[in-house]
Amino acid sequence: MKLFVGLGNPGPKYAGNRHNIGFMALDRLAEDHGFAPWRKKFQGQVSEGKFGGEKVVLLKPETFMNLSGQSVGEAMRFYKLESTDVTVFHDELDLAPGKCRVKSGGGHAGHNGLRSIHQHLGPHYDRVRLGIGHPGHKDAVAGYVLRDFAKADQEWLDDLIRGISDGAPHLAADDAGKFMNAVALRVAPPRSSTSQPKKKPAQNAAPEPEPVDDRTPMQKLMDKFR
Questions:
Q1: Residue among 19, 111, 118, 170 flagged as catalytic
Q2: Cα–Cα dist 85/173, whole Å
Q3: Is 120 a catalytic residue?
Q4: Could you tell me which residues come within 8 angstroms of residue 113 by beta carbon, excluding any fewer than 6 positions away?
Q5: Residue 27 above 70 pLDDT?
Q6: Which end of the chain is less congested by CB atoms within 10 angstroms, N or C?
Q7: What is the pLDDT of residue 189?
């Protein structure tokens, strides 16, 4: 059994925030894969479903970001899970917008949601880091993550969220490679096999040889007077 946790802040005020990309990912996943309706539990919203024979519980903590670990810890104890059964989907300032990386263990890098989870679970859980880019200065971070995604972000955001949903069954099966491939197919799809690259003009092509004149001197003289 796996516990997938999406990080964010509760309520419509925060729904479109960059900080809520974890909530967005789980909402898409639950909808696409026919998970049960969301219900209140563990100080958050929970939805349950299966990928093949693997049961997966989705959790969106409603404790606000800074206390996310309270909700995650409660769910983990209820289901008698190890921290290694938990995967957290969260916004990542240090990745370019639209990038996605899977990571096992490690530090919280100052992320308030991860810091709280560290306090309740320790560092040994998996993360899906969802790039939102950096505002350029640390003093601007708080305002940046609590603002909605711009209209210009919607295309890559939709591709990323759909890719995560496509790859979720692989993630539940502990196959991070296939998960990342599924995301890449949405974010950077391959070119059509029917499209042909444009032909470039040949560089330094050899000049065509001059035609050989094999007329006799007499024929050349006669041709002058024709």
A1: 19
A2: 11
A3: no
A4: 7, 22, 65, 66, 68, 88, 90
A5: yes
A6: C
A7: 81
